[in-house]
Design a protein that fits this description.
Oligomer: single chain
Order of helices and strands: HHHHHEEEEHEEEEE
Helix content: 25-40%
Shape: elongated
Largest sheet: 5 strands, mixed
Number of helices: 6
Radius of gyration: 28 Å
Length: about 325
C-alpha cells in the first residue's frame, strides 16, 4: 500500500499542475485576444476622430474637388499607418502580415471539421474580396490612391475607384466611406450623351427663337442635354452581395470603408460623355433611411466603348 502512495501523490500533483497550467494558458490566451481587440478598436477610433475626408471637399465654386480630396485621403492614410497602426503592430506583430486574415480563412477551408464545407464554398468569395481590399490598401500605403470620381452626401462619401473594361462589360469598383447604420445599395442608372447633329441644333435654335417671340417655354429640349442611350441595374446589390469592409480583411485598412463593384454594359461607340447615378441608403438605428443619389458625369474613354448595334436602352441582366 505504501508503495502505491508515492505514485498516486505524483499523479495527483501532476494533474493539479496540468490543471493550473491549462487554466493559466487559457487565461493568457483570452487576455491576449481581448487585448488585441481593445487595441485594434482604439487604433480605429483614432482614425475616425481624425477623419477629415468625411466632409465636403470642394473648389471655390462649390464643386467636388477630386484632386484636393485625393491629396487629403492619401495624407490621412499616411498618418494613420505611421502612427496608430504602427503603435498597434508594435504591440501585436502577428497582425503585420496583411494576409493574416485570408490565411486563417484558407486554413479553415483545409482543416477537416464541421465548418470545412462552408469555408470551402466561401473561399473563392473571400479570395476575391481580399484581392479587392489589398489593391486599395497597397495604394493607400504607398500614397498613390487614386479615384475616377468622388462625392459626399449626408454622412457618406462614395469613391469611384476605377472603371475597367472586362470582357465587354464595364467593372465599376466603388468604395463607400462612413454611414450611420448599414449601407443598403439601391442599384445604378447609366446614361450616355453625344454632341447633337447640325440638324438637331438648328431645329432647337429655331424653336427657341419662336418661343421667345411668343413669350412661352420652348417645346423642344436642348439636344445637348438629352441622352441617346441608357442602362439600369436589374438587381440593386453589387456583384459581391455582402458587406465588404476593408478592415475585416486587413487590420491596418482604414475603418468605416466598404468596397464592392458593379458590372454595366460597355459604352456605345459614339458616346462622348456618360452620367452614372449610384443609389444608396444608410439605415439608422431609429429606422429612418438616409436616401442618397451620387451622380457623376464623366468623359468616355476609348477603352470603355463596345458594340451596341443600334440598341438605345438596356435593362441590365442578372449577371450585371
Amino acid at each position: 500500500m505504501k508503495k502505491l502512495i508515492g505514485p498516486l501523490v505524483l499523479i495527483v500533483v501532476a494533474a493539479a499542475l496540468a490543471t493550473v497550467i491549462t487554466r493559466w494558458t487559457v487565461s493568457a490566451a483570452i487576455e491576449q485576444k481581448e487585448s488585441f481587440r481593445a487595441d485594434r478598436l482604439a487604433m480605429q477610433m483614432e482614425f475616425l476622430y481624425n477623419n477629415s475626408i468625411m466632409r465636403a471637399i470642394t473648389d471655390i465654386q462649390g464643386r467636388a474637388d477630386l484632386q484636393k480630396y485625393l491629396q487629403e485621403v492619401n495624407t490621412l492614410a499616411n498618418w494613420y499607418l505611421k502612427n496608430p497602426v504602427k503603435k498597434f503592430l508594435d504591440a501585436h506583430p502577428q497582425a503585420a502580415d496583411p494576409e493574416r486574415v485570408i490565411k486563417e480563412k484558407r486554413q479553415l477551408a483545409q482543416e477537416e471539421g464541421p465548418r470545412q464545407k462552408v469555408a470551402k464554398s466561401n473561399l473563392p468569395l473571400w479570395e476575391e474580396a481580399y484581392q479587392l481590399v489589398r489593391r486599395v490598401y497597397d495604394a493607400l500605403k504607398q500614397g498613390t490612391y487614386r479615384a475616377v470620381a468622388s462625392d459626399y452626401q449626408g454622412s457618406v462619401r462614395l469613391d469611384v475607384v476605377s472603371i475597367e473594361n472586362k470582357g465587354g462589360k464595364l467593372r465599376w469598383t466603388i468604395m463607400v466611406w462612413g454611414g450611420i447604420g448599414p449601407i443598403v445599395y439601391d442599384g445604378w442608372h447609366l446614361k450616355w450623351f453625344k454632341s447633337p447633329s447640325e440638324e438637331e441644333r438648328r431645329a432647337y435654335e429655331k424653336e427657341l427663337a419662336l418661343a421667345k417671340r411668343r413669350h412661352r417655354e420652348p417645346e423642344l429640349k436642348d439636344p445637348a442635354t438629352l441622352h441617346f442611350a441608357e442602362s439600369a441595374s436589374a438587381t440593386k446589390h453589387p456583384v459581391l452581395n455582402f458587406e465588404l469592409r476593408g478592415a475585416d480583411y486587413i487590420d491596418g485598412f482604414p475603418p468605416g470603408a466598404q468596397l464592392n463593384y458593379y458590372h454595366t454594359p460597355a459604352c456605345p461607340p459614339d458616346a462622348e460623355t456618360m452620367e452614372m447615378e449610384f443609389k444608396l441608403k444608410a439605415r439608422a438605428i431609429s429606422g429612418q433611411d438616409q436616401v442618397m443619389s451620387f451622380v457623376f458625369k464623366l468623359p468616355v474613354k476609348s477603352e470603355w466603348r463596345g458594340s451596341w448595334d443600334g440598341v438605345q436602352k438596356v435593362e441590365a441582366a442578372s449577371d450585371y
